Amino acid sequence: RILVTGAFGQIGSELINKLSDIYGQDNVIATDIKSGNYSGPFEKVDVTDGKRLYEVAKQYKVDTIMHLAALLSATAEKMPKRAWDINMGGLINALEVAKELDLQFFTPSSIGAFGPTTPKEHTPQDTIQRPTTMYGVNKVSGELLCDYYYYRFGVDTRGVRFPGLISYVTPPGGGTTDYAVEIYYEAIKQKSYTSYIKEGTYMDMMYMPDALTAIIQLMEANPDQLKHRNAFNISAISAAPEDFAKAIQVYIPEFTLEYDVDPVRQQIADSWPNCIDSTAAQEEWGFKAQYDLQAMTKDMLEKLAAKLK
Ligand code: VAH
């Protein structure tokens, strides 16, 4: 039985369906601060309420927690103290439940866990992590906290550093990489997009199906193979806004891209790597992304054309 926090966010809303397909919907307990579109078990849980989280995990006799509830990078910069309370308070509550009930534990880190002094090209699995955003501080702290719960208490914690995730089901909320999702919606709606991230800004990106597969593959991996735990670099695509425009123009030749840079989100993006190295994940648990920019663009435009009809 798996309890998912943040179940109606960008990752959660697709993860609960993927987990239901594999393990059966009765075994996937969705929790969030608001209800959403899911016909399986749902419980209203605010992850800053550790007692409530413990009670739900105990009531449903779960053996795994996938902790996704968090504020993303741009939102966290608007309300850093609140971001600390949710991102760190929620995380340690979830880790405590995993320790008390002996649960397997997943939570994502991010390329946001790196900062301006991190090598930007082929960023190594083990390297300098001095992020300059509250979100990044939360992600580095979260990685260290999850490793601590593994070494100190034996909790089976595992995580990945997600790139910007692109999906057509639930839009992300308050991220820096959200432009890479918006651009597809606007390409369908009005054949043009104004990017708040400037030309030539490279970041790691990944299509949601690859992200979901990575979570399940990592959680099912043989623990004896894992030299790392929190958290694995994984990436699929390194792209800048103009690369998305070129890929879209193959299907919508008249698509145009303009720029109106948002200095706050540009500064966050500039502090992150251009492309990270996924070798450790490939070697330790067989990570392999299926979607490149062209395949993702084809699928995104097809699915959105149907969704936005
Ligand atoms: C964000 N989508 O932009 C998230 C993610 C790597 C980016 O952490 O904050």
UniProtKB/TrEMBL annotation:
CDD domains referenced in this protein's UniProt entry, alphabetically: TDH_SDR_e
BP terms from Gene Ontology: L-threonine catabolic process
Sections of the chain in a coiled coil: none
Pfam families recorded: Epimerase
Family: Belongs to the NAD(P)-dependent epimerase/dehydratase family.
Record-linked PANTHER family: L-THREONINE 3-DEHYDROGENASE, L-THREONINE 3-DEHYDROGENASE, MITOCHONDRIAL
Protein name: L-threonine 3-dehydrogenase
The species this protein was found in: Cerasibacillus quisquiliarum
